[in-house]
Amino acid sequence: MRASLLIPTLNEAASIGHVLRTFRSSAEAANRTLFAADPLDWEILVVDGASTDGTAAVAAAEGARVLTETRRGYGRAYRTGFAAATGEILATLDGDATYPAERVPEFVRYLLDHDLDFLSGDRLTLLNRAAMTTEHRIGNWLLNFTVRIAYHRYLAAVPGRILRDSQSGMWVFRRRVLDRVRLTQDGMPLSEELKLEVLIRGLRFQELPIAYGERWGAPKLSSWRDGRRNLGFLFSKRFALTRESPDRGDPAPNPEAA
Questions:
Q1: CATH class for the domain made up of 2-241
Q2: In 3D, which of 172, 169, 127 has the Cα closest to residue 30?
């Protein structure tokens, strides 16, 4: 089976090599154990936002296929990566070493064994407070609370009827999901948009707790600015749902991906 790992980067030369080596080591080990009967053929795509610190060169030296995306934005990088990926299974990580790259193969095995469409890493259940600032913790709580209230009708099939981490950037999902969802965001709201679309369309979704580490390098997020944008998107998305067809499970036309 073909699988694709996508990582958006921007000036992460200090950490991207470590992330890729950790992932590759775990993928090779998993192909001898978890996937011994049918090893995964991994491609690694790094979507680089025109880094100036040599990130792209480091990633290429580690065997990644590097795509340069000069249009800025977290969501833009992922939409570019989704269009270029060739795997039946897609997995995502950040390039700053905060997510446990070694668990990606385990997530794929879990997705397949439990016949899921989308599996997301939950950073908050096991959160080490040193890995996330107070502002980020407050922002995540507010965004997750908003999702639980505004989108409660779409959480019926989620274990516990709760989306624990709407902002997580570690996902493993089947490529066919992209044919069922509408992705419109080029910025940080893409993360919550993708998860909400999966839930709205009635796809099989689950979260697994993960250990979330301290970021290598300077932070790029602004807690209040990005939090306001994400919160504004949640409300605009919810209001837009009232104008959609009541049959949420039908395939949704996907906007231009590139």
A1: alpha beta
A2: 172
